[in-house]
Amino acid sequence: MGFNLSNSWNRDLCVLGPMDSLRQSPSPCSSRPSSPRTPPCEMPASVGIEAVLDQLKIKAMKMGFEFNVMVVGQSGLGKSTMVNTLFKSKVWKSTLPGLGVPTPQTLQLHSVTHVIEEKGLKLKLTVTDTPGFGDQINNDKCWEPILSYINEQYEQYLQEEILITRQRHIPDTRVHCCVYFVPPTGHCLRPLDIEFLQRLCRTVNVVPVIARADSLTIEEREAFRSRIQKDLKSHCIDVYPQKRFDEDANDRILNSKIRERIPFAVVGADQEHLVNGRCVLGRKTNWGIIEVENMAHCEFPLLRDLLIRSHLQDLKDITHNIHYENYRVVRLNESHQLPRGPGWVNLAPMNLAHASAGQLTSPRTSKACKQAQEEPKYDF
User: Fold this and answer.
1) pTM for the model
2) Is pLDDT of 67 > 70?
């Protein structure tokens, strides 16, 4: 699966006892050689601040991590297979279309939670699927159940957070990332895609991907990607990683390379095949095997690295510090009752379906979008 949070985490933990640390710690005088001008033992002894990293590592190994992903797209685009491929586990059971499985008449959301363990590190993974999205003849406001679900998770977290006696660890069910599957039409984004993405990107981190990219040639794939990037820019759809959240030069360099490749052209497969004496994940066709982890065949490795290896914690941080904070500020501003002393906020019930279509998730106009690109959107 390759869940590498840092290079040092791949090594086994080694907790030294007091005597071992005394034996291995260097002498205060050995940090630099003495000279006639420098008296010996002038350098102060090490305080041991670097040991904080070991403490955080041990705590993380005990508690584990939570990561919540939502996959959105039409039926038959390989959403379940892609999730299984990402985490190399049977997270979701795939169902082949046309095998007696009825098409849902309305949009339904299903969540499943699995605990994945790798090298002693536990990841509590929750995947939310949206069967029925875009499958109806009339898809008017088909995004409202999805946006309501996202806001419901924010509301649950907020209700736990404002309690006087709070839990030591608040369960985090907030959606950290939404992977949006674009059908491989080869043309451009559909009006449904644009309408939904305009609302979605203000509420959650959105990573668009070109589904079933093996149905396109290399030239068609690149032309399709270019058209999608133009559509995203012209309609002010700010997908992850957002440019305005780059913290330093290194982030800007890395994220700029990622933004050039978004949407990733991906192929999912959860079966192994023998290719040149080695087992690879791929899809077997009449003309060969499409290797999922081969960059010459598809860009699945880029999606996996973004979601797991390089940006998992950043996805969670932006969810908490930006999207949830925006929701929290709006909700607290709506409340004008402070009946139990300073700092106590009595939140009135909120119509989440109305919020999804209203202030929290309404799309920006082009003028507002330009202002948002020039000025910081959030002041928290």
Assistant:
1) 0.76
2) yes
